[in-house]
Structures are given as C-alpha cells and as structure tokens.
Design a protein that fits this description.
By secondary structure, this protein is an all-alpha fold. 67% of the residues lie in helices and 2% in strands. It has helices at 3-21, 37-58, 65-96, 113-134, 141-173, 195-202, and strands spanning 107-108, 177-178. A two-stranded parallel ribbon has the order 1-2. The mean pLDDT is 91. It holds the Pfam family DUF4254.
Length: 203
C-alpha cells in the first residue's frame, strides 16, 4: 500500500474503534507501536473523531449554557492538540526527508504534507457519517438519495486528495518541491497574545 492507502485504513480503524462505545469520554487505546507513524496517524484521527462529536453536541439548541461553555473550552483544547499533532507529523516528514536536497527551481507547496493529511482524516469522518445517512432506514428515500449523491462526491474527493498527497511526497523525495514548515502560532490560547486574556491579567 502507498502512504495514503495506509493512512486511510488507519483513520477508518480509529473511527470504527471510537464508535464501539460512541462516547466522547472513551480513552484512546492505540494499537500501533510506539513512535511509529501509524501510531501518530491513529492518534490524529482519534482527536478528530472525538471533536466531531463534541461539535455535534454543542449544536444542541437545548444545551445548558454552562455545559456549552465547558464544551467550548474542551473543543479549544482539542483544537490545540490537533494542531500540535499535525506539526508533529510534519516534523516526522522533515526528519524523513532531511537528506533530500531540493533542486534550484524547486517549488514550495501551499500546504505541508501533514496539513493535507489532516484534511484526509476529516474526509474519512465525512465519508463514514455520510454513509450512515445514505443507509439510514429511518430516513426518507429522498434523504438517502441526497446523501448518497454527497457520498459519491466525498469519495471522489478522497481519491483526488490521496493522489495529490502521494504526488506531493514524490515531488519532495525527488527534490521538485521544497518542504518548508511554519509553526501555526495560534494566538487565542496564549495568555500573552490574546488581548482578552492579557488585559484581564493587567486589571
């Protein structure tokens, strides 16, 4: 299997494992070896899967405001973990390709491999849940047909994104693309960068 085939399989294993209990509080039980890329990819999708369901819960119009605030804080923390893990995956690729010398005319891609992998992980969740809707017996035939049409598009996106990621990795390996990573430097969680937080401290 190529890289994206392996990643897609791991993402779907994570999604299936989560839905055994379908509980946002379920602790991850990562089946892959420590320090392996497979383990990192599984952890990445687990975070995405839990956050997917957190986002569902917080959109309940009847949710208690106190619970909603707590969930929003949980989602913020999850987003930070997600970003940190994406950057960790990019660090893995940087190490893998550290001896590759880019050609003088090497291009710079608009996104790094890990951020493309992030989109593939989210796409796996979209495919899983849209497939459920396309086959939900309690839904109307119109609903199922609409969801099947959307699922077909998602699967096309999966093929195209997978091809693009594999091409990007090949271009990096061949020196045709220069891998350059910028840390995201998210500001809203940093007490020294978020005005709401540091102004509060100054009062």
């Amino acid at each position: 299997m190529n890289f994206t085939e392996t990643a897609w399989e791991i993402f779907n294993q994570s999604i299936e494992d989560y839905h055994v209990s379908d509980d946002i509080n379920t602790l991850i039980n990562n089946p892959f070896e420590k320090d392996s890329l497979e383990r990192i990819l599984y952890a990445k999708n687990w975070i995405d899967t839990v956050q997917w369901h957190l986002e569902d819960i917080i959109r309940d119009e009847n949710i208690d405001p106190t619970e909603a605030l707590a969930l929003k804080r949980t989602i913020d923390a999850s987003n930070q973990k997600r970003t940190d893990l994406v950057e960790f995956i990019d660090s893995w690729f940087l190490e893998k390709y550290k001896n590759i010398i880019p050609k003088p005319d090497a291009k710079i891609n608009t996104e790094t491999p890990a951020w493309a992998v992030d989109r593939l992980s989210i796409l796996a969740l979209k495919v899983y849940h849209m497939s459920l809707e396309a086959n939900r017996e309690s839904a109307s035939e119109e609903h199922r047909l609409n969801c099947q049409a959307k699922l077909d598009v998602l699967l096309m996106q999966k093929d195209d994104l997978s091809t693009s990621i594999n091409q990007l990795l090949t271009d990096i390996e061949n020196g045709n693309v220069k891998m350059k990573v910028y840390k995201q430097m998210k500001m809203y969680n940093d007490e020294s960068l978020n005005p709401i937080l540091y102004q509060k401290e100054q009062k």
